[in-house]
Structures are given as C-alpha cells and as structure tokens.
Specification:
The chain is 52% helix and 11% strand. The chain is α/β, with parallel strands linked by helices and 374 residues long.
C-alpha cells in the first residue's frame, strides 16, 4: 500500500500568538469575514484578539456570528452570500468544530457557485478563499483537516464535504481561550480528540507516521484523565490549569493531523445518528460507542487493539469501557427501533469501508445496544 502525508496548514502555537503574528493576515487578503458563534468567542477573548490583530495591520472585517451547534446547509449558504456581497478576500473561523466546519464551507461557497444538490459531490473547481482558524475547544482538530461536517436534513444525518481545498492556510493555537470551558465540554471535546486518534489507528489508511501522532495524542489526553475525574467530583473547571489546557489543545491538533490522513471509522458513522436524532454531543456520542468497537477489534485483531490500549496503559478493552462510563456518567435511553434505524444509516456510510474491522449491520445493532447498557 502507498501511504501519503499531506499537511499544508501552517500552525502557530503559544500565548498571544494571534496578536504577535498579525502580519500573517496580510498575506491572506484585504478584507476578512470572521465566522463564529453568537457568544463564546466574545466571552473568551479570541474574537477581540483577532480584531485587534486585523486592525493593527489595516485589514477590514465584518462578522458572521450566526453559526449554531452542528451547522446547517442553510447557515453556510447565508454566510457565503454575505461574503460575496461584501467582497471578502478571506475567512477567519473562531470557535469549536461548528464555526470551523462552517468557515470551510463558506470559504468554498464564496469562491465558486455550487448548487445545494452538488454540495457533497466532491466535484469542485480549484477555487477557495484562504482561511485562518482559531480553535477555542480541544477536540475537533478541524483546524488541520480537509473536512467540513454539516447537518444534512435531507439525509437525516451529518455529511462531510471532503476536499484538500478545505485545509486552512494558517491556524493559531492559544490555550487561554479554552480556560473557561465547562467540565462537561472539556471532557466531551477531549473524548472527541481521543476518538480521532484511536480511529486513525483503526483505519485502513493508517501508516507509521499517522500512528506515531495518534499514540502521542492518546498519551497526552490520558495524562489529563485523572484531572477530568477530579473535576467531575469537584464540579469545577478550575481543576484544569493552563498547562493541561495546552496539552489537550495540542493533543487535539495531532489527532486532527491523524484523521486528515486516515479519515474516521464506524464510530463516527454510528455517532452521527446519535447527534442528529438525539442531540447528543458529538464527542460524547463517540465516547459512548468507542469502547464497544474496541472490544470487537480486540476479538478480531487483538494485536491492533493491544497497541492502542497499551498507549492508554490498559491491557483490555473492558478497562477503557469502564473509564468512559466514569467520564460520561448517566446514559441516554435508546429504543430497539432507534437502534435498527441508526444501524441502517451507518452501514451505508463510507466509514465502514474505511474501518480495518468492518462490522455487519447486526454487529452495529449489538454495539449500539451494549453501548447504552446502564
């Protein structure tokens, strides 16, 4: 098999890295559209720092802050229309996975005319607005991937736009923007990153390079797990210090680099229905399902499962499942009819073919059922 590694995004890491590197925006254009949500970027100071940096180098900007959790197709078309009407040269996305996913789609749609029915086709002109990203959660890794995940109501799931055009030009990682994240958000996003790293190792496209990044990411996240458990008991995000926030942010970055090369597996395919139909946070959905898929891999390819579990300092998949139960707490209810419906959706996805261990539809139903055992 031929392995490839392509990571064109320039990454800047460190305290105040946006304002200290404001000259980098000059190379992107003369007018920016800041894509973000309604509140968090304002609260954590990231939007203010971006505006300060832009103003310091004489770049005009406007703000599109209508991005909701799990952004819709309508949302990104609205943002693209705003960009076109105002002659925007480049996009700056600030926030978690939702604003970054939306920012990529807006950058694509503002540069070329794509009908809604062709949005997920993969057949695009080689035109896209340059992008600068500022992640403010430590989980999605979208700042270094070529994927934009949108809510697709016609398909009743989340669907990915995948194109090398969508790699951001530059990404700024400053952990201080994550300091105010609530305990639950910190845990869910960390589990999302962990799932990316693990699934990268379970992908048919895994390589020695992607595995090395995945193992490093897994270890960094697991180093923070004791403090996650302590934070749950204390009910306070104060438990996490800035060094731990930096670790989680960089672990998420590396996990994003992993899936940029490998893609994701059946865990994401199953998780999308939990998010779409039951409004379960994406990272939490992955965490609910990952343990059961690791058990299946352990039965079919024990050496592969063993290498992943060793990075966690575990010897059995059951130990990982127990940890997820502690971190995720009380589980949602899921009916047998829902399980059948979600399994039928998941089995049709490309993620199944991308999985080293390819479950049957019956095995999907079993994994769903066992994942929600109280």
């Amino acid at each position: 098999m031929t392995n490839k590694f392509y990571m064109p995004t320039r990454v800047i890491i460190g305290d105040d890295c946006i304002t200290k590197n404001s000259e980098l925006f000059i190379f992107l254009g003369k007018k920016a559209l800041i894509v973000t949500g309604a509140q968090s970027a304002k609260r954590n100071g990231s939007e203010k720092d971006v505006k300060t940096a832009l103003e310091s180098v004489g770049i005009n900007y406007l703000v599109f802050d209508k991005v909701m959790s799990n952004p819709t197709i309508a949302c990104v078309y609205e943002g693209a229309t705003l960009a076109k009407e105002n002659g925007v040269d480049f996009i700056i996305a600030i926030g978690g996975g939702s604003p970054m996913d939306a920012g990529k789609a807006i950058a694509l749609l503002a540069a070329q005319d794509i009908e809604e029915e062709n949005l997920f086709s993969g057949n695009y002109e080689k035109k896209v607005l340059p992008m600068a990203f500022v992640p403010t959660t430590a989980g999605t890794g979208s700042e270094v991937t070529q994927y934009s995940i949108l809510t697709n109501d016609k398909a009743q799931t989340k669907t990915s736009i995948a194109s090398d055009l969508l790699f951001p030009t530059v990404t700024f990682l400053d952990a201080k923007y994550t300091e105010q994240l609530a305990v639950t958000t910190t845990i869910n996003t960390a589990i999302d990153a962990l799932s990316h790293a693990v699934e990268g190792m379970l992908s048919v496209r895994a390589s020695n390079v992607s595995d090395a990044l995945a193992v490093a990411s897994i270890r960094m996240i697991m180093n923070c797990v004791p403090d996650m458990l302590q934070a749950l008991l204390a009910g306070s995000e104060v438990v996490f210090n800035l060094k731990q926030r930096e670790q989680l942010l960089q672990a998420s970055l590396m996990a994003g680099m992993v899936i940029a090369q490998t893609g994701t597996t059946v865990v994401h395919a199953m998780g999308y229905s939990l998010t779409y139909f039951k409004n379960i946070d994406h990272g939490r959905a992955n965490g609910l399902l990952l343990g059961e898929y690791l058990k299946l891999v352990e039965n079919v390819q024990p050496d592969l499962a063993g290498s992943i579990l060793a990075a966690m300092n575990f010897s059995e998949a059951d130990q990982f499942g127990e940890l997820m139960n502690k971190l995720l707490g009380d589980k949602e209810e899921i009916s047998s009819e829902e399980i059948k419906r979600y399994s039928k959706i998941a089995i049709q996805t490309k993620n199944i073919a991308n999985s080293v261990v390819k479950p049957t539809e019956e095995e999907l139903r079993t994994m769903y059922a066992l994942s929600f055992v109280k």
